[in-house]
Design a protein that fits this description.
288 residues; alpha+beta; Ribosomal Protein S7; two-stranded antiparallel ribbon; 8 strands; 12% strand
Protein backbone atom coordinates (compact mmCIF):
# COMPACT_ATOMS: atom_id res chain seq x y z
CA UNK A 1 0.00 0.00 0.00
CA UNK A 2 2.82 2.30 0.77
CA UNK A 3 4.34 1.74 -2.65
CA UNK A 4 1.05 2.56 -4.39
CA UNK A 5 0.68 5.78 -2.44
CA UNK A 6 4.25 6.80 -3.40
CA UNK A 7 3.47 6.19 -7.08
CA UNK A 8 0.31 8.30 -6.90
CA UNK A 9 2.28 11.13 -5.27
CA UNK A 10 4.92 11.05 -8.04
CA UNK A 11 2.28 11.10 -10.78
CA UNK A 12 0.58 14.04 -9.13
CA UNK A 13 3.85 15.93 -8.90
CA UNK A 14 4.61 15.31 -12.57
CA UNK A 15 1.14 16.48 -13.60
CA UNK A 16 1.61 19.68 -11.61
CA UNK A 17 5.01 20.30 -13.27
CA UNK A 18 3.53 19.81 -16.75
CA UNK A 19 0.71 22.25 -15.99
CA UNK A 20 3.24 24.86 -14.85
CA UNK A 21 5.33 24.43 -17.99
CA UNK A 22 2.24 24.82 -20.19
CA UNK A 23 1.27 27.99 -18.29
CA UNK A 24 4.79 29.46 -18.72
CA UNK A 25 5.14 28.59 -22.46
CA UNK A 26 1.77 28.27 -24.12
CA UNK A 27 1.66 26.91 -27.67
CA UNK A 28 1.31 29.66 -30.26
CA UNK A 29 -1.43 29.12 -32.80
CA UNK A 30 -0.39 29.06 -36.47
CA UNK A 31 -0.97 32.35 -38.23
CA UNK A 32 -3.09 32.54 -41.34
CA UNK A 33 -1.94 34.77 -44.23
CA UNK A 34 -4.08 35.94 -47.11
CA UNK A 35 -2.48 35.73 -50.58
CA UNK A 36 -2.98 38.64 -52.92
CA UNK A 37 -3.83 36.52 -55.93
CA UNK A 38 -6.59 34.19 -54.71
CA UNK A 39 -7.60 35.63 -51.34
CA UNK A 40 -7.44 32.18 -49.66
CA UNK A 41 -6.11 31.62 -46.14
CA UNK A 42 -3.02 29.41 -46.01
CA UNK A 43 -0.55 28.56 -43.29
CA UNK A 44 2.71 30.43 -42.84
CA UNK A 45 4.79 27.55 -44.15
CA UNK A 46 2.71 27.31 -47.34
CA UNK A 47 3.07 31.04 -47.89
CA UNK A 48 6.83 30.78 -47.51
CA UNK A 49 6.88 28.02 -50.11
CA UNK A 50 4.85 30.18 -52.50
CA UNK A 51 7.19 33.13 -51.91
CA UNK A 52 10.19 30.89 -52.64
CA UNK A 53 8.61 29.69 -55.89
CA UNK A 54 7.81 33.26 -56.95
CA UNK A 55 11.35 34.41 -56.07
CA UNK A 56 12.98 31.56 -58.01
CA UNK A 57 10.75 32.24 -61.04
CA UNK A 58 11.69 35.97 -60.95
CA UNK A 59 15.39 35.02 -60.82
CA UNK A 60 14.93 32.75 -63.84
CA UNK A 61 13.21 35.56 -65.76
CA UNK A 62 16.00 38.05 -64.97
CA UNK A 63 18.72 35.55 -65.92
CA UNK A 64 16.97 34.78 -69.21
CA UNK A 65 16.63 38.51 -69.97
CA UNK A 66 20.32 39.10 -69.19
CA UNK A 67 21.30 36.19 -71.46
CA UNK A 68 19.18 37.63 -74.27
CA UNK A 69 20.75 41.08 -73.79
CA UNK A 70 24.27 39.61 -73.74
CA UNK A 71 23.73 37.65 -76.92
CA UNK A 72 25.60 39.07 -79.91
CA UNK A 73 23.43 40.30 -82.78
CA UNK A 74 23.32 37.90 -85.68
CA UNK A 75 25.04 39.32 -88.74
CA UNK A 76 23.35 39.05 -92.09
CA UNK A 77 25.18 36.80 -94.47
CA UNK A 78 25.89 38.52 -97.78
CA UNK A 79 25.87 36.50 -100.94
CA UNK A 80 28.25 36.98 -103.85
CA UNK A 81 25.55 38.91 -105.75
CA UNK A 82 25.14 41.36 -102.84
CA UNK A 83 28.90 41.94 -102.72
CA UNK A 84 29.00 42.59 -106.46
CA UNK A 85 26.20 45.13 -106.15
CA UNK A 86 28.03 46.87 -103.30
CA UNK A 87 31.22 47.01 -105.37
CA UNK A 88 29.39 48.47 -108.35
CA UNK A 89 27.77 51.19 -106.26
CA UNK A 90 31.05 52.39 -104.70
CA UNK A 91 31.79 56.07 -105.36
CA UNK A 92 35.26 57.58 -105.54
CA UNK A 93 35.86 59.76 -102.45
CA UNK A 94 32.22 59.01 -101.60
CA UNK A 95 31.05 61.50 -104.27
CA UNK A 96 31.79 60.43 -107.86
CA UNK A 97 30.38 57.27 -109.50
CA UNK A 98 32.88 54.97 -111.19
CA UNK A 99 30.64 52.50 -113.01
CA UNK A 100 29.39 55.20 -115.43
CA UNK A 101 32.90 56.09 -116.72
CA UNK A 102 33.37 55.37 -120.42
CA UNK A 103 36.80 54.54 -121.95
CA UNK A 104 36.55 55.20 -125.68
CA UNK A 105 40.12 54.08 -126.55
CA UNK A 106 39.99 50.24 -126.76
CA UNK A 107 43.78 49.86 -126.52
CA UNK A 108 43.87 51.63 -123.14
CA UNK A 109 40.76 49.95 -121.73
CA UNK A 110 42.77 47.02 -120.37
CA UNK A 111 45.14 49.29 -118.41
CA UNK A 112 42.78 51.98 -117.13
CA UNK A 113 41.51 50.09 -114.09
CA UNK A 114 39.28 51.23 -111.25
CA UNK A 115 39.42 49.29 -108.01
CA UNK A 116 36.04 49.62 -106.35
CA UNK A 117 37.31 51.60 -103.37
CA UNK A 118 36.33 55.03 -102.11
CA UNK A 119 39.99 55.83 -101.38
CA UNK A 120 42.14 53.67 -103.68
CA UNK A 121 45.20 52.20 -101.99
CA UNK A 122 46.37 48.58 -102.28
CA UNK A 123 49.37 49.12 -99.94
CA UNK A 124 51.90 47.64 -102.35
CA UNK A 125 50.19 44.28 -102.83
CA UNK A 126 50.99 42.31 -106.02
CA UNK A 127 54.17 44.34 -106.50
CA UNK A 128 56.14 41.19 -107.24
CA UNK A 129 53.73 39.97 -109.90
CA UNK A 130 54.12 40.61 -113.59
CA UNK A 131 52.15 43.51 -115.08
CA UNK A 132 51.87 45.02 -111.62
CA UNK A 133 50.68 48.39 -112.95
CA UNK A 134 47.70 46.86 -114.71
CA UNK A 135 46.23 45.71 -111.37
CA UNK A 136 46.35 49.15 -109.73
CA UNK A 137 43.61 51.75 -109.89
CA UNK A 138 44.41 54.54 -112.34
CA UNK A 139 43.72 57.07 -109.57
CA UNK A 140 46.36 55.46 -107.37
CA UNK A 141 48.83 55.48 -110.26
CA UNK A 142 48.30 59.23 -110.60
CA UNK A 143 48.92 59.61 -106.85
CA UNK A 144 52.14 57.59 -107.14
CA UNK A 145 53.33 59.78 -110.02
CA UNK A 146 52.73 62.93 -107.97
CA UNK A 147 54.82 61.61 -105.06
CA UNK A 148 58.12 62.75 -106.53
CA UNK A 149 60.89 65.14 -105.58
CA UNK A 150 60.57 67.34 -108.67
CA UNK A 151 61.13 67.14 -112.41
CA UNK A 152 64.47 65.32 -112.17
CA UNK A 153 65.80 67.19 -115.22
CA UNK A 154 65.65 70.60 -116.80
CA UNK A 155 62.18 71.65 -117.82
CA UNK A 156 61.92 75.09 -119.38
CA UNK A 157 65.59 75.79 -118.65
CA UNK A 158 65.43 74.93 -114.93
CA UNK A 159 65.20 71.96 -112.60
CA UNK A 160 62.25 71.93 -110.20
CA UNK A 161 62.83 70.35 -106.79
CA UNK A 162 60.16 69.95 -104.12
CA UNK A 163 62.71 69.08 -101.37
CA UNK A 164 60.77 65.97 -100.35
CA UNK A 165 57.50 67.72 -99.56
CA UNK A 166 55.54 65.01 -101.41
CA UNK A 167 57.85 61.99 -101.33
CA UNK A 168 56.25 59.13 -99.43
CA UNK A 169 53.29 61.27 -98.28
CA UNK A 170 50.52 59.33 -99.97
CA UNK A 171 47.68 60.55 -97.76
CA UNK A 172 48.63 64.16 -98.43
CA UNK A 173 48.69 63.60 -102.20
CA UNK A 174 45.40 61.69 -101.97
CA UNK A 175 43.74 64.78 -100.48
CA UNK A 176 45.35 66.93 -103.20
CA UNK A 177 43.76 64.75 -105.89
CA UNK A 178 40.43 64.83 -104.06
CA UNK A 179 40.50 68.65 -103.92
CA UNK A 180 41.42 68.89 -107.61
CA UNK A 181 38.48 66.64 -108.53
CA UNK A 182 36.19 68.86 -106.46
CA UNK A 183 37.46 71.91 -108.40
CA UNK A 184 36.79 70.16 -111.74
CA UNK A 185 33.29 69.17 -110.66
CA UNK A 186 32.50 72.72 -109.56
CA UNK A 187 33.93 74.21 -112.75
CA UNK A 188 32.41 71.87 -115.33
CA UNK A 189 29.53 70.18 -113.53
CA UNK A 190 30.70 66.81 -114.90
CA UNK A 191 32.05 63.68 -113.29
CA UNK A 192 35.77 64.47 -112.69
CA UNK A 193 36.70 60.78 -113.15
CA UNK A 194 35.39 60.95 -116.72
CA UNK A 195 37.31 64.20 -117.28
CA UNK A 196 40.49 62.51 -116.00
CA UNK A 197 40.03 59.53 -118.37
CA UNK A 198 39.51 61.87 -121.34
CA UNK A 199 42.68 63.80 -120.38
CA UNK A 200 44.61 60.51 -120.31
CA UNK A 201 43.35 59.47 -123.72
CA UNK A 202 44.19 62.84 -125.30
CA UNK A 203 47.67 63.12 -123.79
CA UNK A 204 48.85 59.56 -124.49
CA UNK A 205 51.25 59.50 -127.49
CA UNK A 206 50.91 56.88 -130.20
CA UNK A 207 54.47 56.96 -131.59
CA UNK A 208 57.92 57.54 -130.15
CA UNK A 209 61.53 57.25 -131.29
CA UNK A 210 64.34 54.97 -130.26
CA UNK A 211 68.05 55.06 -131.05
CA UNK A 212 69.45 52.26 -133.22
CA UNK A 213 73.15 51.78 -134.06
CA UNK A 214 74.27 50.43 -137.45
CA UNK A 215 77.97 50.17 -138.30
CA UNK A 216 79.07 52.74 -135.75
CA UNK A 217 76.37 55.21 -136.76
CA UNK A 218 73.26 55.76 -134.61
CA UNK A 219 69.86 56.56 -136.06
CA UNK A 220 66.52 57.61 -134.58
CA UNK A 221 63.80 55.17 -135.64
CA UNK A 222 60.06 55.64 -135.15
CA UNK A 223 58.41 52.91 -133.12
CA UNK A 224 54.94 52.26 -131.80
CA UNK A 225 54.18 52.48 -128.09
CA UNK A 226 52.45 49.80 -126.05
CA UNK A 227 49.23 50.66 -124.28
CA UNK A 228 50.83 50.35 -120.83
CA UNK A 229 53.61 52.79 -121.75
CA UNK A 230 51.09 55.19 -123.27
CA UNK A 231 49.29 55.37 -119.93
CA UNK A 232 52.60 55.77 -118.06
CA UNK A 233 53.78 58.63 -120.29
CA UNK A 234 50.42 60.42 -120.03
CA UNK A 235 50.41 60.16 -116.22
CA UNK A 236 54.01 61.36 -116.01
CA UNK A 237 53.32 64.41 -118.18
CA UNK A 238 50.17 65.31 -116.21
CA UNK A 239 52.07 65.03 -112.91
CA UNK A 240 54.98 67.14 -114.22
CA UNK A 241 52.57 69.76 -115.56
CA UNK A 242 50.88 70.12 -112.17
CA UNK A 243 54.26 70.45 -110.38
CA UNK A 244 55.45 73.08 -112.89
CA UNK A 245 52.16 74.99 -112.63
CA UNK A 246 52.37 75.24 -108.83
CA UNK A 247 56.12 75.83 -108.41
CA UNK A 248 56.87 79.29 -106.93
CA UNK A 249 53.38 80.50 -107.77
CA UNK A 250 50.27 81.46 -105.85
CA UNK A 251 48.40 78.57 -107.42
CA UNK A 252 48.13 75.46 -105.24
CA UNK A 253 49.02 71.98 -106.49
CA UNK A 254 45.39 70.87 -106.51
CA UNK A 255 44.42 73.91 -108.61
CA UNK A 256 47.31 73.27 -111.03
CA UNK A 257 46.31 69.60 -111.38
CA UNK A 258 42.66 70.52 -111.96
CA UNK A 259 43.67 73.06 -114.63
CA UNK A 260 45.91 70.52 -116.39
CA UNK A 261 43.26 67.81 -116.38
CA UNK A 262 40.62 70.19 -117.75
CA UNK A 263 42.80 71.58 -120.57
CA UNK A 264 44.03 68.09 -121.52
CA UNK A 265 40.48 66.72 -121.58
CA UNK A 266 39.49 69.53 -123.98
CA UNK A 267 42.62 68.83 -126.10
CA UNK A 268 43.72 72.45 -125.78
CA UNK A 269 47.28 73.45 -126.80
CA UNK A 270 47.80 75.19 -123.44
CA UNK A 271 48.14 71.80 -121.78
CA UNK A 272 51.71 70.69 -121.07
CA UNK A 273 50.80 67.01 -121.60
CA UNK A 274 49.26 67.78 -125.00
CA UNK A 275 52.40 69.72 -126.01
CA UNK A 276 54.63 66.77 -125.09
CA UNK A 277 52.43 64.32 -127.02
CA UNK A 278 52.47 66.50 -130.16
CA UNK A 279 56.23 66.94 -129.89
CA UNK A 280 57.00 63.22 -129.56
CA UNK A 281 54.70 62.32 -132.46
CA UNK A 282 56.26 65.04 -134.65
CA UNK A 283 59.78 63.72 -134.00
CA UNK A 284 58.58 60.17 -134.75
CA UNK A 285 57.08 61.26 -138.08
CA UNK A 286 60.37 62.82 -139.10
CA UNK A 287 62.31 59.69 -138.17
CA UNK A 288 60.26 57.34 -140.37
Amino acid sequence: MAEETNKDIKIGVEDQALEKVQEVSPTKPKKSIKTKKEGETVTESAAKKEEGILYSSSIEETTSESKESNQKPTLKKHTAEDLELDRENVMLFGKYPIKDVVISDPSMAGYVKFNMQAYPNIFGRRRRKSYYDSHISIIERLINKLMRGGTGKKVGGKVIRTNGRLQGKKLKVLHIVENSFAIINKKTGRNPVQVFVEALQNSAPIEDTTRVRYGGISYNVAVGISANRRVDVALKNIALASLIGAFKKKKSLSEALANELYTASQNLPESYAIKKRVESERIARRAR
